């Protein structure tokens, strides 16, 4: 089956062939087509749905458990978040290690932690050294 991204789109208003491109929205790459005449924009429906799913998850607040495991504290991460992250990664990589996965955790400020599922995003975070 041919993907929509491989197709050509013609503007109904101008009858010109739309140019392929992409926009970034909160870390998401959304494929677009834009008419060079009237500047009308069409978004790839799968990319747009994925972005909408992310926005739904981002706007939810989860109550999670914090518990002692050995000499460390563990936080349970809701399945919806892990499933969404794995779906995102499955598009880039077909083989993901599911068990004993390593993620990066940083303390941004008192009371605020950041959890990074991939190295690329972790490197974007800034590190402040205090002597």
What does this entry look like structurally?
- With 131 residues, this protein is of the alpha+beta class.
- It folds into two domains: 55 residues, no CATH class; 59 residues.
- The chain contains three helices and seven strands.
- It has a three-stranded antiparallel beta sheet. A two-stranded antiparallel sheet has the order 4-5. Strands 6-7 form a two-stranded antiparallel ribbon.
- Strand 6 and strand 7 form a beta hairpin.
- It is elongated and about 65 Å long.
Percent helix: 25-40%
Using the alpha-carbon principal axes, give the shape: elongated
What are the low-pLDDT stretches, counting only 5+ consecutive residues below 50?
94-99, 126-131
Whole-number tally of structural domains = 2
**Ends apart, CA distance between termini:** 58 Å
Tally the helices: what do you get? 3
Please tell me how large the radius of gyration is.
20 Å
SS strand fraction: 25-35%
Widest sheet, order of strands: 1-2-3
The helix/strand order is: EEEHEEHEEH
Oligomer: single chain
Largest pleated sheet: 3 strands, antiparallel
The tally of strands reads 7
Query: How confident overall, as mean pLDDT?
Result: 79
Describe how the helices and strands are arranged.
Layout (H helix, E strand, L loop, with lengths): L18 E7 L2 E7 L6 E3 L1 H14 L7 E4 L2 E4 L3 H14 L11 E6 L2 E5 L2 H6 L7
Antiparallel strand pairs: 1-2, 2-3, 4-5, 6-7
């Amino acid at each position: 089956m041919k993907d929509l991204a491989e197709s050509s789109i013609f503007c109904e208003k101008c009858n010109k062939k739309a140019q392929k491109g992409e926009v970034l929205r909160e870390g998401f790459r959304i494929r677009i087509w834009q008419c060079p005449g009237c500047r009308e924009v069409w978004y790839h429906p799968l990319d747009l749905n994925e972005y909408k799913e992310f926005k739904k998850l981002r706007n939810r607040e989860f109550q999670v458990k914090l518990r002692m495991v050995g000499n460390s504290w563990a936080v349970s991460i809701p399945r919806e978040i892990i499933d969404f992250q794995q779906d995102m990664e499955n598009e880039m990589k077909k083989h993901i290690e599911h068990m004993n996965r390593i993620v990066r955790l940083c303390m941004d400020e008192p009371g605020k932690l950041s959890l990074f599922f991939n190295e690329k995003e972790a490197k974007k975070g800034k590190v402040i050294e205090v002597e």
